[in-house]
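Checklist before submission:
- one chain only
- standard amino acids only
- sequence pasted in full

Submission:
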Amino acid sequence: MENKETLTLLSNVLLLPDGNGVNKAYIDIILQEEIPIFCENSETKKTRLMPFKVLYDNHENFWQRGGNWKYYLTSDAYEQLIDKSTNRTNVWSIDRFVTEKKIEPEIIKPEKSAIKNEAERTEIKNFNIISNEPKIEDGYGDDYNTFAKMSAVEKIEHLNEKKKCLNELIAPKNRDNKILTETLVDTTRDVAIINHAVIEEAMRLGDNEAKRLTHNLVISTQEIVKSSTNLIMESVFDNELMSTLVEKSNGTIVQHMTRVYLNGLAFLAYYNKLVSTSNAILKIRLSFDLKYRNFYHDILSHLEPRNIIMERVFSGGMRAIPPEILHNWAVGFLIHDIGKAAAVEYHEGEASYNRDLVIEHVKLGYQSILKKTNYPIEASLITGYHHEYYGDPAGYGYYRSLLELNRKKNPNLKQDYCISYDLAPMKKFQVLAYFPAKVLEIIDVYDSVTDPHRVYRKALTPDEAISMIRQEFIRKARKIDPILFDIFADYIQEKESRQS
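Returned file contents:
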């Protein structure tokens, strides 16, 4: 039985023998001990090792919902559950019988065996997740396994080399733009891959141990973010950067994260320049009544229309973002989809669309960054809040859940502002949305519909994308912010005109 792993169907563990109810004692132990769950898709043969709490928070009886996904405890997890059980009256015997099967390393579909209690077992030979070997992540491209197999020291050394390359490009005035852009793109890709690999490992650990594991990763990533931010701010409309982003795109999740990060920084640089050096805010204010008031009154309907003003939309008024805050936001932009490849996978195509699985990547990313790392709180909020869509039913995220809980506790709780640049109004639930998350919503949607490697639909041109987003996300529904979107549309138009 060397190098083989036994799996036990989760429902056979959690359902009481008489079929009447769930063993809550076991659930409490699994939650307290952060015991992971092995997830296997019977159709795609894909597997994931997921925190029980993430799945449980999404649906308390997720293991009974049917569909293509099945959920198991590994033998180590099962033994840990039994050992930690403090109420032996809730423990019943599950046979440890295993039928010998010859299974090739790539075949990982659990097989049923006729044994007592109809428990299902699978022996998996050389299974990467359950051993200490990292698994291959299709969504993170061919390089993922190379980085995942590196030691912790090697990963940090690689990031430090990338940081050194970036810093060498900051000072020279006559630098080669091709080298600059390739370095930016390649560095961002590597940082995203390494973050995913390390945080995936951290999710299997307790919070304090995970933070120790990710300590150096956080420091190196933040330093790289500062360097790349400085370079991006200097060349907002650099043609070489934009073309390199397209050339190096290959449809993977990590390339989406790379494009969103670099384009997001470029847009924030454009935004900062706009609100600091032009009369853009005055122009928005002059057109506010005719162009924007109705939109914001729909989402702040408890206020009188005459009270819907610019300062109600942007708490404290529109303003530029200082560098130290921008750097924290940039980290969130970089790792915003860090939970996507780690979550049981979902697809862009409507035929295989599963809303629960789509939502899961936001929850997993939010929890992993918040609890398993010392990244700034802004990064976790951006990760967890970037699909909120002003409370539209199509959106999802943690903020709306927290907001709803607080409304139940305080029925008189009202949001008198749309967007906050600061954390305090978010924590007090005085606003509907967080500024960087609203920016990321726009960048995220735009990148998805213009990605040249879209599988299920033809990629839109920039003009087509702007038109479609305005129609579907602003006019038909109240999802993304119209003022920020109009600034973004101007940014895209100016960028396209400079590239033509």
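Reviewer check: DSSP finds 21 helices and seven strands in the chain.
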